[in-house]
Amino acid sequence: MKAMTPAAAGTTTAVIPSPSVPRTGWEVCISCTPTSGGRRPHSQDGWPRRLRRLARLTLRSQATAPLTDDVELVLTELTSNALRHASSGDVSIRLLVAPESVTIQVKDTTSSPAVLRRVGPLEESGRGLFLVDALSSAWGVSDAGTTTWCRLTLTADTEHVPARTPH
């Protein structure tokens, strides 16, 4: 069961979890200053790939290594959405590793909360939070709508697959 509280139609909110056990992890802050035309600089396009590599390197020697592929996918979805929708300011991405879980927090400057929505089979986008919901044990959005977080947790049936070597 997901740790979420129903809010406005199609929106969920939850308190961002605070660390209750010792964790390891990192935080990256990306400046999203738009170009003179109001568009996002192309230099930001490589960030999801860089963060996937950093996550893989972080998790490969942890007990949570079997979650690596799912963490990479969810991290990419949340980061890409934040970079796409942040009009200006910074996007902060935090990955926290606990003994049996990985928490990802992505904060941007938009006050529009991430919303899980239904999309048609011919729509080209809109499935990111569906993937987050399917792969995480809990997820939510801060009351201010600026931080989306999720937690992926090891379970008894989590397949132990050695993490691939980063490319």
Protein architecture, described:
The chain has 167 residues and is an alpha+beta fold. It is 23% helix and 23% strand. Strands 3-4-5-7-6 form a five-stranded antiparallel sheet, covered by helices on one side. It has a two-stranded antiparallel ribbon with strand order 1-2. α1 packs antiparallel against α2 and α2 packs antiparallel against α3 (128-135).
Helical content (DSSP H or I, runs of 4+): 10-25%
How many angstroms does the end-to-end distance come to?
35 Å
- Low-pLDDT stretches are 1-15, 160-167
Broad structural category: alpha+beta
The counted number of beta strands is: 7
Query: How are helices and strands ordered from N to C?
Result: EEEHHEEHEE
Give the amount of beta strand, in percent. Answer: 15-25%
Taken from the alpha-carbon principal axes, the silhouette is: globular
Task: Please tag this protein with its features.
two-stranded antiparallel sheet, 167 residues, five-stranded antiparallel beta sheet, 23% helix, alpha+beta, 3 helices, globular
Chain-wise SSE layout:
Blueprint: E1 5-6, E2 12-13, E3 24-31, H1 47-59, H2 68-85, E4 90-98, E5 101-107, H3 128-135, E6 138-141, E7 147-153
Antiparallel strand pairs: 1-2, 3-4, 4-5, 5-7, 6-7
Helix pairs in contact: 1-2, 2-3
